[in-house]
Design a protein that fits this description.
By secondary structure, the protein is α+β, with helices and mostly antiparallel strands. It has 2 domains: 17-114 and 171-211, no CATH class; 257-463, no CATH class. 52% of the residues lie in helices and 11% in strands. The chain has 18 helices and 15 strands. Strands 3, 4, 5, 6 and 8 form a 5-stranded antiparallel beta sheet that branches. Strands 7-12-11-9 form a 4-stranded mixed beta sheet, covered by helices on one side. It has a two-stranded parallel ribbon with strand order 1-2. A hairpin with a 3-residue loop joins β4 and β5. α3 crosses α6 and α6 (174-188) runs antiparallel to α7.
Length: 463
């Protein structure tokens, strides 16, 4: 959730209250479903007198409008319904119509804001008289499904801070939201109803309950602050405990520009390379050193602080709520997969997959296909001398990986589609889903800023 003062979301729809009771949310979903049904009926009647091509165009336009209507209504609900929608946007491109996937992706940053009067009431209830210490901008500088962020000044000291204010009632609605969404999946048959899916929902439940616990997030932010305080490439906000609570997080305001901003795009290529290298290195540290990973790749969780007068550009890391820890066994397998990817060896990759139930239950053919998928996914981390499959335009004259030329995400998607067509394929284990989510975000980040990265620097220290 970006602390970005330059583009506050003033123009977003503002709502008076959140529908946080189970009844209200069920009623809202039911009304949305009814409206969608009426639209489908109307569209079918309209199509009766159209030729085949016109009907196809009309259906395409209709699906787009329906998808955006659904995303807009989900955005009004906020809470974990939106968080689940965000996850489906990341994982659902092979199992959902592309129009639905694209619309769900807008839930990352296009949710409605809660009116300041309701936020102020909530802050008064949490802070009491301490609220009088603060001069708070009523316009949020960041919004998300579970909270919104307001910039403030401590009147006595002039210190600039931000307040991450959790929407009232969302924590209590998590379990009913999950049940609601799961029923929706069952009715629509969007994904196979398997034990893996049940395990994934349990993981989402745990993650969401953790994400609304701001005392836990404060502790995590403080750990990352200590880990990175001496690394000039990164900035982590400092927690202010005096104005924090289990439902309110106060931290220093950290300036920066969005990853997608014109200012970042106009940096010299070497400066963008340094930012990209820092972004991918922090992910590697999280997975292979700390075993504790921020799983939400939303660009709003990062800013770039531009260096002045020759100073280093810095990556500002925000929002440590969606943290997932991994056990030593999984980290060993992940390290082995990375090693096999670096040497670009199919036999080694097959061996690295052994000892994990998800892989061990696959037939040799499917396991071989998945190993090939992993070799493709680890292409940016492979030794160019060993991997002759890297497209020629994906390496510069220093053998650095050229992300913007790679079309890696679409190539991985095509390979994954092939793997998913197997009747043996089940939803991947929850651990791999969160790791893949992080990698997808990092790949997109590096492609957007057109970074070149050095696989030797990235991987050698971990294998």
């Amino acid at each position: 959730m970006a602390h970005n003062p330059t583009n506050p979301p003033h123009d977003k729809q503002s709502i008076d209250n959140l529908k946080t009771s189970g009844f209200e949310r069920r009623l809202s979903i039911a009304k949305t479903s009814l409206n969608i049904g009426r639209r489908w009926a109307g569209n079918s009647v309209s199509n009766l007198f159209l030729d085949k091509d016109a009907k196809a165009r009309r259906n395409q336009e209709f699906m787009e409008s329906q998808a955006h209507y659904l995303a807009e209504e989900l955005g009004k609900l906020k809470g974990s319904v939106v968080k689940i929608g965000q996850m489906l946007a990341l994982y659902g491109e092979h199992i959902l119509p592309p129009e639905i996937t694209r619309a769900l992706q807008t839930l990352n940053d296009d949710t409605a804001t809660l009116r300041w009067e309701r936020i102020e009431q909530n802050l008064r209830r949490i802070l009491g008289d301490k609220l009088n210490d603060l001069d708070i901008d009523p316009n949020p500088i960041g919004t998300a499904s579970l909270a919104q962020v307001h910039r403030a000044t401590i009147r006595e000291t002039g210190e600039q801070i931000v307040l991450k204010v959790q929407y009232p009632g969302v924590a209590d609605a998590i379990d009913s939201d999950l049940a609601l969404f799961k029923r929706l999946l069952k009715v629509s048959n969007i994904v196979p109803q398997t034990r893996a899916l049940d395990a994934w929902f349990e993981e989402i439940r745990d993650l969401l309950h953790h994400e609304v616990d701001y005392e836990a997030e404060a502790a995590t932010t403080e750990r990352f602050y200590e880990r990175l305080k001496n690394d000039p490439r990164y900035v982590v906000p400092k927690i202010n405990r005096h104005y924090s609570s289990p439902r309110l997080l106060c931290m220093t305001f950290e300036s920066g520009v969005p990853v997608t901003s014109k200012e970042v795009q106009e940096l010299s290529h070497e400066r963008r390379n340094q930012v990209g290298q820092a972004a991918i290195e922090i992910m590697m540290q999280e997975i292979f050193v700390w075993g504790e990973m921020q799983t939400d790749p939303n660009f709003g969780n990062y800013l770039v602080r531009l260096g002045q007068n020759g100073e280093m550009d810095q990556l500002v890391l925000l929002d440590f709520g969606a943290i997932r820890t991994f056990d030593a066994a999984l980290l060993t397998i992940a390290r082995n997969l990375l090693t096999a990817g670096y040497y670009h060896d199919h036999t080694t990759m097959m061996a690295a997959m052994s000892g994990y139930d998800f892989f061990d239950t696959m037939s040799p053919k499917v396991k071989s296909d998945v190993a090939s998928l992993f070799l493709l996914a680890t292409e940016p981390f492979s030794d160019p001398e060993k991997n002759k499959d890297i497209p020629a335009d994906c390496l510069d004259d220093q053998q650095r990986y050229v992300w913007a030329n790679s079309q890696l995400h679409s190539r991985i998607s095509a390979a994954a589609t092939k793997a998913m067509q197997s009747f043996e394929f089940n939803l991947p284990p929850k651990e791999f889903m969160f790791i893949s989510r992080k990698f997808i975000g990092a790949y997109t980040f590096l492609t957007v800023i057109d970074a070149y990265t050095d696989s030797q620097k990235l991987v050698k220290i971990f294998i």
